[in-house]
Amino acid sequence: MTRLLALVAFVAIALPAAEATAHPLGNFTVNHLTQVAVTDDRVQLRYILDIAEIPTFQARHQPRTQTLQRARQEVARRLVVTVDGRRVAVRSAGIALLSFPRGQGGLSTTRIELSLRAAATGARVVHVHDATYPDRLGYTALAA
Amino acid sequence: MTACATRSARRLGPELARPFSVLVDAQMELGRYAQAGRSLQQMIDRRPNLASYARVSYFRELHGDLVGATRAMSLAVSAGGGAPENIASVQTLLGDLQAMRGRTRAARRTYAAALASAPGYVPALFSRAQLDAANGRLQPAIRGYEDIAGCRPLPQYVIALGETQQAAGRHAGARETFALVDAERKLLAANGVNTDIEIALFEADHGDRARALDLARRAWRAAPSVRSADAVSWALTRSGHSGDGLAWARRALKLGSRDPLILTRAGLTARAAGHDRTARRYLRRALQANPRFSVVWAPRARKALRSLP
Fold first, then answer.
1. How far is CA B59 from CA B44, B103, B210, B213, in A?
2. Residue B263 in this model has a pLDDT that exceeds 70
3. Which of A42, B88, B92, B244 is the right S-S partner for B117, CB 3.0 to 4.6 Å?
């Protein structure tokens, strides 16, 4: 059986030049990488979320459980996996990792890793589209 | 350096208009207004388009010609072209000029047009929230600013949110918001950026005045424009040196600016320095075109004007 894997990523960094030179773009960003592996009956995904200093600071009063829950909700809503044209549910497949690596200026960043899977028994075409955090500036990357 | 590189680019391709936009921007921000005016004339002669009309508008605005600035910006909107964000950008600037002249309804329509050109265009959302705040609609303004800060937390936007929360009596919220500005200041400093005019003005009003003065002076040394002169003036006045502040305020107004924020700060500075007549003149001028120009500064201008003999 031949199988096709289509990955759709919008690498969106749209920022006027003036802002980019006046402010360190990196500290404002929410970046995400999705690693995709397709087996006989499933799609396995590892979703890595890197939240820079400023959005981390903005969420400083949020309890850890809520930070994780929000990321899960965002992924459930906007990480779109379709199998032969039909959207399939993306479920949790293992523990989620949450850490706060040191950033610049004495501030923290946030890193979240989610293990996910979607059913794909007998699939011919698998399509993954990461549309999470559409309003935030940052990199979106997909790797198969 | 920018100006040098642009000049050689212009020598290599004298028929091109594009290097001019970089040259004009550099000359304006470096406070070389006479040179900027000449470059701008050459630019618009070569190519009367969105980019050149928008710069003509800014040039006229800096010189206090708000009617001419509005006309030029309307031409920039009509010229159109390029990405939707380019059109939304000049529409937003046109709205800002209309708002500055007290044409509140026209400004609101123009912001709506900008958001129709480029849905979710952040500067238009910001200007709309600012207009709401200035006209006493504090709750919708705060909601608007919160949305903007949620997706694009630039210092300018976050500061506006905090000041509007303060005006609405939400002091706890304002403190939280100002803490975010402080985090951003630390990040800017960690990245070697210590010339930010917005942060200098913020520090003068809400933070550390010595730091405000240091930032403003650095900003002036890096780019001696009327905007950085205004920041130095205000930082001096807030540090108790209103006499020196007034000299810098005159520098900020030397082109004849009608910017009500600069005029208000100049008026407050003149009052603190004991120059009552000058203070009255600046404050009246600040309130003349649009008495509701800002939720923060218009009430301050009015109160100061009432307190003068």
1. 13, 21, 32, 27
2. yes
3. B88
pLDDT tens column, B12-71: 555 555 678 999 999 999 999 999 999 999 999 999 999 999 999 999 999 999 999 999
pTM summary value: 0.88
pLDDT at A7: 55
Nearest to B154 among A19, A105, A135 (CB): A19
B187:A104 CB<8 A: yes
Interface confidence (ipTM) of the complex: 0.83
Q: Which residues of A touch B (CB under 8 A)?
A: 14, 16, 19, 22-24, 27-28, 53-55, 57-58, 104-107, 135-137
- Residues of B in Cβ contact (< 8 Å) with A135: 120, 150-151
Q: Are A54 and B149 inside 8 Å of each other by CB?
A: no
Q: Is residue A20 part of a domain?
A: no
Q: Which residues of B touch A (CB under 8 A)?
A: 85, 120, 149-155, 180, 183-184, 186-191, 193, 196
Q: Give CA–CA dist B30/A27, Å, rounded.
A: 27
CA distance linking residue B196 with residue B212, whole number of Å: 10
How far is the C-alpha of B302 from the C-alpha of B283, rounded, in Å?
Answer: 8
Instruction: Tell me the count of A-B CB pairs closer than 8 A.
Output: 51
Q: How many domains does chain A have?
A: 1
Residue A107's closest chain B neighbor by CA? B183
CATH 1.25.40.10 domain span(s) along chain B: 225-309
Alpha-carbon distance of B110 to B90, in angstroms, equals 10
The reply to whether A34 falls in a domain is yes
Residue A115, domain extent: 4-15+25-86+95-143
The series of mean pLDDT values per 10 residues for chain A, 144 residues long, is: 51 38 63 92 95 95 95 96 94 93 91 96 90 90 88
Segment B97-123 shows an average pLDDT of: 97
| Higher local confidence (pLDDT), B189 or B95 | B95
CATH class as words, domain B225-309: mainly alpha
Distance to chain B for A118, nearest Cα, Å: 30
